[in-house]
Amino acid sequence: MQIKRRDFVKGCAATCALLVPGISWGARDASIIKTSDARAQIEKSIKASFGGSFSVRTHGSSNGLTHADIEHFDTRYTVTSADLLDWKIVRSV
Predict the structure, then answer these.
(1) Scanning 2, 21, 79, 86, which has the fewest C-beta atoms within 10 Å of its C-beta?
(2) Cα(67)–Cα(53) distance, rounded to whole angstroms?
(3) Cβ-count burial 9-39 (b if 16+ within 10 Å, e if not)
(4) Is pLDDT above 70 for 34?
(5) Is the per-residue pLDDT at 41 higher than 70?
(6) Residue in 52, 68, 71, 50 with CA at minimum distance from that of residue 60
(7) pTM over 0.70
(8) Residue spans of beta strands (DSSP E) within the chain
């Protein structure tokens, strides 16, 4: 079998791109991973501050603050934090 060096290198690069998850999935999937990591970090922080029986419904960030809607035995709270350590209850429903 006659194969040129350039073709061999291209084939190796294509194989590596398919085998390495970070290269083949692209930036879109990397942002999904970052989002799920952020959600896990926010959940840990809220449960450490308020207790393990709270559940995080939604979260987001704007103006340097992290906002989250949490629930505890059918009572909903909106909380904010600047550093994910000190959470303040803004509203309860």
Answers:
(1) 2
(2) 19
(3) eeeeeeeeeeeeeeeeeeeeeeeeeeeeeee
(4) no
(5) yes
(6) 68
(7) no
(8) 55-62, 65-72, 75-81, 87-92
